[in-house]
Write a structure and sequence with these properties.
With 472 residues, the protein is an alpha/beta fold. The chain has 13 helices and 20 strands.
Length: 472
């Protein structure tokens, strides 16, 4: 049920024949090939559609197949009535035009006139069918053309992530961390927009009891595989054992309840040495996105990034910018998977923090690492689940000072795929009142995220160029 399904129908006309049968066969062959590469199910209507009556027969098949996305190819100029009937069968469609082999000849006798036909179809969907709220994307080119492949691949990846998210289950455990009310969410709006199921009635005590219910012998094996590449000299066997208990408790809890992501209220539980940042890092390493401090929108955003990339993800705080080299410091206590670490790997060690008395206290284990140089993307669903924040850049190679934890300085900053200065980025975050959590993945997937935002009708969080005066 989670796999994307794409359908194909092809329209033709009697008075245009620019190789329509070849175009039809090429389209079928290509979309079938791409179905393996882009991981979607594929079907097609086996006949070229000429009349509105032909379209009705195709509509019956489409309604039985219930595709998530329908590609309508114009092998030649189509019947407008046929387009109208086909377009109504799916809320998300692709309008696909084919280039002319030649523009010579009398009245396009040997042409397909597909460009003009797609123009008419786009207008029909946008205006004549506007009350049906059909979303579409145009494609123009042969199936092997670079532009077609890029555009189609983005659509398949984005819609696949959207469909998986719509059937996902995400759990909040322990509530939002005290005082972190900027992470507040309305689950009704999240479910309405994304389809995701949010379960917010889980207490940390459930995990605590589960963690301490395991026999010591059952934990030994888990503790053995829990450790990262390196362990600090301050880490004892019992430290790994307690972390392993919580790692197993969260893992078992997610499996038993079919949860795809977790929002963990790790603060202030970490102060009691009962929950470690490294536990969250290990969950993320395993492909179970886990956000910090009870951040449900953050967890869902992480899950979407994971669905797009297939790789571990993490969550960061923005802790400063450096205008001298136009970089931003992304840091968190230590919940990132070793997947992001540079050649030195991740060190498992205690988190040292000041208590109210001003004493330095060793808290639970965390992952201490610097991110390896690579492109990275930060994406978060924000607002009332109706906006997207999107930043991409590159974790820099040149070492710079940074506090212990999971962290990296990010350069080549781009907001919504457009370069942005560090001061303008800082101004945007503060002026917009954006939440302080930044879901992160490896790679530049900003184009896929923009595509996803378009299909979900999300507005992009826009840059606010810095000025000295107050800006609303």
């Amino acid at each position: 049920m989670r796999k994307l399904k794409i359908g194909l129908v092809c329209l033709r006309a009697d008075n245009f024949d620019g190789g329509m049968h070849n175009n039809f066969n090429d389209a079928i062959s290509a979309l079938l090939t791409y179905s393996v590469e882009c991981s979607y199910d594929f079907f097609y209507y086996p006949e070229l559609i000429l009349t509105p009556g032909d379209a009705l027969s195709a509509c019956t098949m489409i309604e039985e197949q219930r595709p998530d996305f329908l590609m309508i190819q114009f092998t030649s100029f189509p019947s407008g009535e046929a387009v109208i009937r086909l377009a109504k069968t799916c809320k998300r469609i692709g309008l696909w035009g084919i280039p002319e082999a030649s523009y010579s000849g009398s009245n396009f006798v040997n042409s397909n006139n597909s460009f003009c036909g797609m123009n008419m179809a786009a207008s029909l969907v946008s205006h004549y069918l506007k009350h049906h709220h059909i979303d579409y994307k145009w494609f123009f080119g042969h199936p092997g053309d670079d532009r077609f492949i890029r555009r189609f691949s983005l659509t398949a990846r984005a819609l696949s992530a959207i469909k998986k998210t719509a059937s996902a289950r995400v759990a909040l455990i322990g509530g939002i961390a005290p005082g972190f009310n900027d992470l507040y969410y309305d689950e009704r709006l999240g479910t309405a927009r994304l389809g995701v199921t949010i379960e917010g009635r889980n207490e940390f005590s459930e995990i605590y009891k589960r963690a301490h219910s395991y026999a010591d012998k059952d934990i030994e094996k888990t503790a053995g595989c829990y450790s990262c590449t390196n362990c600090g000299s301050d880490v004892k066997k019992e430290d790994l054992a307690i972390s392993a208990r919580y790692y197993r408790a969260y893992s078992d809890f997610a499996k038993e309840n079919n949860y795809d992501a977790l929002a963990v209220s790790c603060w202030p539980q970490i102060k009691e040495d009962t929950l470690a940042c490294s536990v969250i890092g290990k969950l993320n390493e395993d492909g179970l996105p886990a956000s910090c401090e009870g951040d449900i929108p953050g967890a869902i955003s992480m899950l979407m990034l994971h669905y797009i990339t297939g790789n571990p993800v993490t969550m960061m705080d923005l802790c400063g910018v450096d205008e001298t080299d136009e970089t931003a410091l992304m840091w968190h206590c230590g919940p990132s998977p070793e997947f992001f670490a540079d050649a030195r790997g991740a060190t498992t060690r205690h988190s040292y923090q000041l208590n109210l008395a001003g004493d330095t206290v060793a808290y639970a284990l965390m992952h201490d690492m610097v991110f390896k140089p690579q492109p990275v993307t930060f994406m978060r669903i924000t607002g009332e689940w109706d906006r997207m924040f999107l930043l991409d850049g590159r974790a820099i190679e040149t070492p710079k000072e940074s506090p212990d934890g999971s962290r990296g300085w990010i350069g080549n900053l781009k907001l919504n795929r457009k370069p942005i200065k560090a001061i303008d980025f800082m101004n945007t975050i503060f002026t917009r009142g954006f939440q302080h959590h930044y879901p992160m993945c490896a790679g530049d997937i900003s184009a896929v995220c923009m595509e996803m935002a378009s299909w979900l009708n999300l507005k992009m969080l826009q840059a606010v160029e810095y000025e000295d005066y107050r800006q609303n």
